Amino acid sequence: MPHLEYAQGHILITVSTKKGLFLLSSADRQSWHIRGPLLRGHRIFNAIIDPRNNYRLFAADNGDFFGSFIRYSDDFGETWLEPERGLQFSAESGEKLNAIWLIEPGRATEPDVLYA
Predict the structure, then answer these.
(1) Is the dihedral of CA 11, 74, 103, 63 positive or negative?
(2) How far is CA 53 from CA 68, 74, 96, in A?
(3) Higher pLDDT, 66 or 26
(4) Whole-angstrom Cα distance, residue 53 to residue 57?
(5) Separation of alpha carbons 84 and 58, rounded Å
(6) CA–CA distance, 75 with 43 (Å, rounded to integer)
(7) Residue 39 to residues 5, 31, 107: CA-CA distances in angstroms?
(8) What mean pLDDT value characterizes the chain?
(9) What pLDDT was estimated at residue 11?
(10) pLDDT digits over 9-28, tens only?
């Protein structure tokens, strides 16, 4: 269920920064409410709201020390979780994940797919 602040018909924009994630919302596109930073101090390269999964919020969190993660929230950023298994290349590829630049929900027929 969407956060009461984000009622149907409202505009909600995610703004990703190196200081965290901000949510901008408006009922009329004239006045805006800014919430954040969420994930304060984390470098968020991209964030999306997935309407397929009860408006789950995903964020691409890229840190120099701990690495890159996709975090998600089911309560519009009040609490955050990480998938049990993060993104990674196969060991045989010899590749290393440096950053997650963009995330995008899959098609309506792919409810558990997120592209990165």
Answers:
(1) positive
(2) 23, 9, 29
(3) 26
(4) 9
(5) 15
(6) 20
(7) 19, 24, 27
(8) 89
(9) 92
(10) 889 999 999 999 999 999 99
What residues pair up with 48 in beta bridges, in sequence order?
58
Tokens of 53: 């999964």
Distance CA 42, CA 20 (A): 5
Residue 43: closest CA among 12, 20, 15, 10: 20
What average pLDDT does this structure show over 31-46?
Answer: 95
Instruction: Provide the whole-model pTM.
Output: 0.86
Q: With 0-12 CB in 10 A as exposed, 13-18 as middle and 19+ as buried, what is 4?
A: exposed
Rounded-to-10 torsion of CA 106, 63, 42, 103: -10
**Confidence band (pLDDT; 50, 70, 90) for 40?**
very high
- Interatomic CA distance for residues 103 and 84, integer angstroms: 18
Q: Which amino acid is at 44?
A: I
